[in-house]
Amino acid sequence: MATEDESKKAQIVEARARNISHNVRCTECGSQSIEDSNADVAVLLRKLIRDEIRSGKSDKEIYQKLEEDFGETVLYAPKFDFQTAALWLSPVIVAGAAAGVWAYQRHRQRTNVHIMALNLVRGVPLTPKEKETMLDLITPPRQPRRWPWERR
Start and end of every CcmH/CycL/Ccl2/NrfF N-terminal domain (predicted)? Predict the structure, then answer.
């Protein structure tokens, strides 16, 4: 009975240690987790994690200790704070700017200066039929889009 409990505890410790080790970057390799690395530092960190688990520390406490000892870059998932906000939000900002440029260009395509001038001169807005006829007359035919590398 005691050996069953001990083996269950050992399995739990091993599972937690593997889970934590997969989320910690090897400081020597840089591109591998300490679970996948065979570097001396990775072996020592895995042992440290197992010792910390056996001493009763939570996963969060272990992550904090590793971050304090080795810096934030040792964790694969950096925390979201003021310093990293630009990094985390940059894809959203770039996509928003691209959408804004696209919307502005679409608006400029649909706003025809000639029709606006004609409305001002006449003092009365054009009817939809007049607007359509006017656009047909002054809009050049659309050229097929070409890729930059194609010859003309």
Answer: 4-131
**Structure token digits, residue 99:** 């959408």
40 exposure class (CB count in 10 Å sphere: 0-12, 13-18, 19+): exposed
pLDDT in tens, 36-82: 888 888 888 889 889 988 888 888 898 888 888 887 778 877 677 77
The amino acid occupying position 14 is E
pLDDT above 60 (res 152): no
Taking the whole predicted model, whether its pTM rises above 0.85 is answered as no
Angle between the 40-54 and 2-22 helix axes, to the nearest 10 degrees? 130
How far CA 146 is from CA of 37, 120, 124, 139, 140, in Å, comes to 49, 37, 40, 20, 17
- Cα-atom radius of gyration of the chain, to the nearest Å? 32
**Which are the contacts of 46, defined by CB distance < 8 A and separation ≥ 6?**
17, 21, 34, 35
How far is the C-alpha of 100 from the C-alpha of 58, rounded, in Å? 46
| Cα 65 to the center of its chain, rounded Å | 27
Q: What is the DSSP letter of 75?
A: B
Q: For residues 72 and 65, what is the distance between their CA atoms, to the nearest angstrom?
A: 11
Q: Which residue has the tokens 């003309």?
A: 152
